[in-house]
Structures are given as structure tokens and as C-alpha cells.
């Protein structure tokens, strides 16, 4: 099931309202896709409102507004190597603030304190229930679904400042979308990134050093995860620069494509 968060475009009595919904139809035929609105949040049994909209008549928003985003660095060996880093002995985790989140088609605003902003295509895990100290065998019980993410990074700031709060936490640095896929095996999915149609990254989740389940176990040892929290699982090799005017697209097999343009921060 694909769960989206959306607002209704002008011209409808519900214009401007924000809801969750179930997306149906073939991604290859977007004009035929439909969103069925849900009442309330999507974590329990779906409660349709009876209202449906053509996908082209709604604006897709970030599929979740997380309380926190826990990200994992250097979880693909080739990516660690391309930046001259060793694979860490334990998962390297950091936070991105909720204010970094944007949705499909929203703009990444190039921060004025950087001259080297880069893309990082990632599989994102959306947590479905409050949990802590999750055993490996019970990890599937706490996962709501998966979406695409771009861990946009000011690489020069990351290298200059050492700690990553500004480099990876600036406004608009965490695009998520286009929706959450709840029925997906994350073990071996293609993850790609294009910039202006040019392929930059092409990897598979099977190349992760630590699996999704292992990451959830590690993170939940330290902190409580809440419904809607997001875990970014690392990026494959091929990260590279973004410039004002670029369109960057992250695609993940079984989910879809998340596309954003890069603008100068106003």
C-alpha cells in the first residue's frame, strides 16, 4: 500500500486541506492514479473518508513530518572509500532536524555558507509504533514503511567543521517522498540518483554494511523511536555536486521517484 500526504489544489471545495491518503494506480501511468483520502493519521487500520482525487489534482507533500530523523553515515563501503574514509566499527549515526524536511517538487535552497552542496540518495525507513530496545526478530513489527530520501549535504562545511549539524541539517536538506510504501522487502532494492537526467548514483540496498534491521536495533538501544520517525540508511557511491538550477531525482525500486530542483536561498 502506498500512503501519501497531500493537499488539494485550488478549484476544489477542499482546496488547501492536508490529509493522508492511499495512492492507487500504475506509476507508469500517472494520469490514471487516484488518491483516496484517509481520516486522521495512517498508523492504525485505514479509515477512508470516501473522498478521492486524481493524483494530478493534488500536491504531494513530504509523506511524514517526523519528530526526528536519525541518519546513518558510511553504510556503503564504496561510498566511504570515495570520500577517503574507513568503514566505521559501529554504525555512524547523526540527526537531521525536522525543519530540514521538504516534499516532492519542493525546492532545495542552496545555503549561502557553502560552495559544495552534494546529493546523497538513500532508502528511508518510517517507524510505525513507539519502540525501544527492539530485538532483531521484531524489527518488522515497528516499521510502517519505506520512502525515498536525499541526504543533501554541504560537503565543504562537513569537512571544515568536523561535526555535521550545519552541513546536514540546514533547511531543505532532507527531501522525502513521493509516498510511503508499506509492503516492501528492503533487502535488495535498486537505489539511483540522477541530476538533470544524468545518472550519478546506482547501488543496491544489498550493498549496505548493516541491514535495515541491524540499524533499527542499534538506534533503538539508545533512544525511543516514535511513530513517524525516519531512519536514513546511508548512500551508495557516486555522490556529487548540485548547482542552482539543477533537478535532482532519487529513485528506489518498488517505491518511486523523488524529484527536487535546486534554487538559490532567497
UniProtKB/TrEMBL annotation:
The keyword Ligase does not apply. Residues 1-63 form the Rv2993c-like N-terminal domain. This is 2-keto-4-pentenoate hydratase/2-oxohepta-3-ene-1,7-dioic acid hydratase in catechol pathway. PANTHER family: ACYLPYRUVASE (PTHR11820), ACYLPYRUVASE FAHD1, MITOCHONDRIAL (PTHR11820:SF7). Residues 68-262 form the Fumarylacetoacetase-like C-terminal domain. It holds the Pfam family Rv2993c-like_N. Keywords: Metal-binding.
Amino acid at each position: 500500500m502506498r500512503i501519501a500526504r497531500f493537499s488539494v489544489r485550488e478549484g476544489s471545495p477542499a482546496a488547501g486541506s492536508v490529509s493522508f491518503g492511499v495512492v492507487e494506480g500504475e506509476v507508469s501511468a500517472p494520469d490514471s492514479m487516484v488518491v483516496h483520502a484517509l481520516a486522521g493519521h495512517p498508523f492504525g487500520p485505514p479509515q477512508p473518508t470516501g473522498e478521492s482525487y486524481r493524483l494530478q489534482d493534488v500536491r504531494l507533500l513530504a509523506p511524514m513530518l517526523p519528530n526526528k530523523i536519525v541518519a546513518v553515515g558510511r553504510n556503503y563501503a564504496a561510498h566511504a572509500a570515495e570520500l577517503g574514509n574507513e568503514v566505521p566499527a559501529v554504525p555512524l549515526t547523526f540527526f537531521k532536524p525536522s525543519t530540514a524536511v521538504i516534499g516532492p517538487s519542493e525546492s532545495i535552497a542552496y545555503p549561502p555558507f557553502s560552495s559544495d552542496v552534494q546529493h546523497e540518495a538513500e532508502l528511508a525507513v518510517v517507524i510505525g509504533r513507539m519502540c525501544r530496545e527492539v530485538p532483531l526478530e521484531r524489527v518488522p513489527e515497528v516499521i510502517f514503511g519505506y520512502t525515498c530520501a536525499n541526504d543533501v549535504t554541504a560537503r565543504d562545511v562537513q569537512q571544515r567543521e568536523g561535526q555535521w549539524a550545519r552541513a546536514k541539517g540546514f533547511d531543505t536538506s532532507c527531501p522525502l517522498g513521493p509516498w510511503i510504501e508499506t509492503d516492501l522487502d528492503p533487502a535488495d532494492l535498486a537505489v539511483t540518483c540522477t541530476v538533470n537526467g544524468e545518472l550519478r548514483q546506482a547501488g543496491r540496498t544489498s550493498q549496505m554494511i548493516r541491514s535495515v534491521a541491524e540499524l533499527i536495533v542499534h538506534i533503538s538501544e539508545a533512544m525511543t523511536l516514535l511513530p513517524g520517525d525516519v531512519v536514513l540508511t546511508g548512500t551508495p557511491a557516486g555522490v556529487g555536486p548540485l548547482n542552482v538550477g539543477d533537478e535532482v531525482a532519487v529513485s528506489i525500486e518498488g517505491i518511486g521517484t523523488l524529484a527536487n530542483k535546486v534554487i538559490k536561498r532567497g
